[in-house]
Model the fold of this input.
Amino acid sequence: MNQGEPAMPNPARTDEHEARIAGLLGRMTVEEKFGQLQQLAWAWNTGPGGGSTGAVEAAARKGLLGSVLNVVGAANSNAVQRIAVEESRLGIPLVFGLDVIHGFHTTFPIPLAQAAAFDPEVTRTDGEVSAAEARSNGIHWTFSPMVDVTHEPRWGRIAESPGEDPYLAARYAVAKVHGYQGDDLSAPDRVAACAKHFAAYGGAEGGRDYNTVDVSEQRLRNLYLPPFEAAVEAGAATVMAAFNTVSGVPAHANPRTLTGVLKDGWGFDGVVVSDWTGVQELIAHGSAADEAEAGRLALSAGVDLEMVSTTFVDHGPALLERGELSRERLDDAVARVLRLKLRLGLFERPYVEVSAEITAPGVGARAAAREVAGRCMVLLKNDGGALPLDATALRTLAVLGPFADSGDLLGTWALPGAPEAVPVLRSLREALPHAVVTHAPGVPADGSDVSGLPEAVATATAADAVVLVVGEPSEISGEAAVRSDLGLPGHQEELIRAVAATGTPCVVVLVGGRPLTIGDWADQVQAVVMAWHPGIEAGPAVADVLTGAVVPGGKLPVTFPRTVGQVPLYYNHERTGRPYDPAVPEEKYVSKYLDVQDGPRFPFGYGLSYTTFDLGEPALSRERISVRELREGATVEVTVRVRNTGDRDGEEVVQLYVRDPAASIVRPVRQLRGFQRVRLAAGEERAVRFTVGAEDIGFWTNDPAGVFTLEPGEIHLHTGNSSHARAHRTLRIT
Ligand code: BGC
Done:
């Protein structure tokens, strides 16, 4: 894959580590081995040890615990670590994990927003800042990046994902792994990454969390697996199993994916961790009869470390005794956990330096979060140059809406205790010192209260311009936060219509964790900015974009449908035998809805700027290439010229898509295979180059053994600034 990222090797296996692992395995009892395969949750797993943390401490003391999640703080983690290191028989250190998804103290924009930046540097920055803050607090390992490609805006976890495209998701995955891990996991500012949820969790039917996924082999391999493979290649130290079934087999009990694809196929020698009680849930799934069977299925399939449920430690020794578990598998799982600890340097430095603990977002971290948030925003509409706001002419600005003066802009998976986001109202007041900035929330984020509408309308009427900050609260985004309606909750759309009807120019800033259906209200306002859940520096970043200090350049990493009834709607869909043709809208027997205009409200890859860009036709370095040459590593260069035709400096995301018009398996109408976010001064022109190779042209077949094929024929290479890229050249594969 043409990822444009510096290659970093897998964490190397060292003879020294392997010798130490072998030595330890030789000294461990069966119980101690299963103990290493147990992860308990701090303040959650209760037990006879007494108190909510007693069970964790008791298990650590007996050497029956490998890992703990959710212990936070240098002093706390050191205290628990001391029990394992100083009081257990073998003194094997614990590894502490936590969901540091888009920030520790410094909350960055949600992952979906980061994907919208089309700039892996953004994600690497989050990874680096998060890793340094987390590790200094005793966290060795984050359960991130989540790299589940999804077509489901109803699914709350789309907020945690990089969206609907496997190539973009793979670039995101690589950047996040590099950001967290660097090239030395034992460094005091690095944490181990975890690519999750393996596999196809984003395919949940109906978007209902944890739901069934039934997927063809080719779709599994072409759509869901590439970001995981990229993460593993980039050196991700761990992988988490998914809650869903894949074609009838729960991911936690699936030897084909966990062992066949991941471990044997990709050579992954790190840890597969279960999801929270995911092993025990094999019973509820209807795949295991009892806990012993659940443990046997999961461990045999390839899960190495059990999160929260305790089937491995409770039943493993008896299963082994009865010959229902192999000793090799047990030792392999233990070796993987020990290898992770060795890579993290925990045997040498089990404790964290309390005096070096980062206790709040630093100035540099905040500045990074602000810059990143600005880069993630997507300008969806900007009629008549309504944006940027004209700071010199603006006397009164009304900042309205339930999220205008709100700190609830961190999004899902902000850590408990993380500082709230800076509100937009405060930042606009600071950014526009010469204007009077008025405020009224209008309506709450949800619910039926409309008593504030008249005040909002009056405030809008008295102003020169309005900024309306509306959207989704964080709590209806994320895990188990599934919606059947993608509109703005409560009476927010009514608020927009009422304010727009005043005639005062109106800019809508949308916050949220998923594609929202943007109804007719968008026709009544002048500009719309998708700000996502922008994180701790939400206010300053929104103010930067609205005032033009930052020129927006983000692009949608997911399709925005017109109505929820169109879902799933995604740009990289397969063709039907009866595709809809916009030139013949009256044609009935084609693939379309009767009651909604065809296509998305905004397509994948779309986003405007305060300047304009002109993209030329692509040029190819060669027009023919053979399958053999491709197999041997030959590539084709695609060049496209891009010119900033406006009078402001700005950034454009130049995108390359491939299309295979006739193949043994019907291929998507477009597949993203390259992007570059380029900064161009007003009037500047530049050539952007992409390299296309076998991985960009070939595809996985339905062969369960995993066959990647390259077929002779035509390939269309499209370039443009959204997935509607029209300009193309044909490459002939011989
Ligand atoms: C989520 C995981 C998360 C785990 C630990 C689960 O509910 O699915 O993504 O890492 O909890 O908090």
In short: Residues 99, 143, 196, 275-276, 479 surround beta-D-glucopyranose (CB under 6 Å). The longest strand covers residues 650-659. Residues 372-566 form a domain with the Rossmann fold fold (CATH 3.40.50.1700).
